[in-house]
Amino acid sequence: MIKGISMRHFRARWLCLLLLLPCCAGFLLFRFIHWPPASPPETDPLTAFVSAGIPGSEFLLFPNGNLNGWYPVGIGRWTIQDGILSIRHGIGYLATHCDTLTDFTLSLHVRTGPQANSGVFFRATHPSWDLRPWPVGYEAQVDHHDPRNPTGSLYNRHTASGHPPRDGEWFTMDITVKGPSVQIKINQEVVVSATDTTYQTGFLALQAHGPQSWVEYKDGRLLLLDRKESEEGH
After folding, report:
1. Alpha carbons 193 and 185: distance in angstroms, whole number
2. Within a 13 Å sphere around the CA of 201, how many CA atoms are in the beta-carbon half?
3. Measured between alpha carbons, how far is 188 from 210 in angstroms, rounded to an integer?
């Protein structure tokens, strides 16, 4: 009986190990294919723009059809053509080198494929050494079919009002953060107006959610806001 119990325990341990191996391999593959750089390059244009700190100034996020100032984390497929950034087939995110974004308005045009899932992270930081494949921070949801967090929702914090757009059609998303105030517009309509103090500063990121999902972004613009003006407004 003792030998039988020992053998069952031995087999159970080996079975658990075999089941964990694919997860560990996937985790290492995800982390080491693209891992966040230790610091932004000295020539990063967005970092220089934010450091200048001129309220009311505007920055093009995909200038001249390139992704200078961005880098991929994970195993998503990121391409840009004719000014359109496509996210397809993978799990991860595309992040800005600049991680000191605080008060701003971010404007984007977005188009989703069938049943697509993505999101726009802001005031975000990279996850620690765990199995989370996406940043830690606020997320403006891009998913027309999630009843709890439809497109425009501040993910798992405030559900967007109104009706989400349709797959295959371009729509606009405007995210404004000023101090603790967070506002999200879809097609110029306010769908979230919230107050939240969880995250203060960080980078921007666009999410690759799964192997069957594709989403497109274009005309990304960032407008700096004045922190003093933000504080006076509250």
Report:
1. 9
2. 7
3. 28
